[in-house]
Amino acid sequence: MAKTININDFVLISMNRAGLSTLTVKEHDSFAQKDGRLKMQLWQVMQTFGSQLYLGCFPPFETTIELCEDVKEVNLEDGMWEEVG
Q1: Global pTM value
Q2: Is 3 inside any structural domain?
Q3: What is the mean pLDDT of each run of 10 residues along the chain (85 residues)?
Q4: Calpha distance 57→10 (Å, rounded)
Q5: How far is CA 56 from CA 9, 48, 78, in A?
Q6: Buried residues in 44-79 as b, exposed as e (16+ CB within 10 A)
Q7: How distant is the alpha carbon of residue 85 from its chain centre?
Q8: Partner of 60 at 20 to 30 A CA spacing, among 4, 19, 27, 32?
Q9: Residue 4 is assigned to a structural domain of this protein
Q10: For residues 5 and 46, what is the distance between their CA atoms, to the nearest angstrom?
Q11: Spatial separation of the C-alpha atoms in residues 40 and 69, rounded to whole Å
């Protein structure tokens, strides 16, 4: 059975030097997790790093992306996530 993902789903990405240089300190701090990975909605990843992703590119993050299934609510007012429960 195929697994589906929505672009509003949250993912964890492991950044490299090129990716970190793309983010402002405020962006990094708002998405950073204790383990150093970033937790963002998939659409935010595409919006933030889209211009760096093309055939033959050096990706700004590890290409294995983990889907977060523990986030239950998103505060759409400011675009930041909020875990509930």
Answers
A1: 0.74
A2: no
A3: 88 90 86 90 93 93 88 54 51
A4: 24
A5: 27, 19, 34
A6: bbeebbeeeeeeeeeebbeeeeeebeeeeeeeeeee
A7: 22
A8: 4
A9: no
A10: 14
A11: 12
Structural contact between residues 16 and 62, judged by C-beta atoms closer than 8 angstroms: yes
User: Quick one: how far is CA 78 from the chain centroid?
Assistant: 16
Query: How many Cβ atoms sit within 10 Å of the Cβ of residue 19?
Result: 21
Find how far residue 21's CA is from the centre of its chain: 15
Check if the beta carbon of residue 11 is closer than 8 Å to that of residue 32.
Answer: no
Host domain of residue 17? 10-82
- Is residue 37 assigned to a domain? yes
Supply the pLDDT for residue 83: 54
16: which 2 tokens?
A: 């490299």
**Number of domains within the chain:** 1
DSSP secondary structure string for all residues of 12-33: EE-B-HHHHHHS-HHHHHHHB-
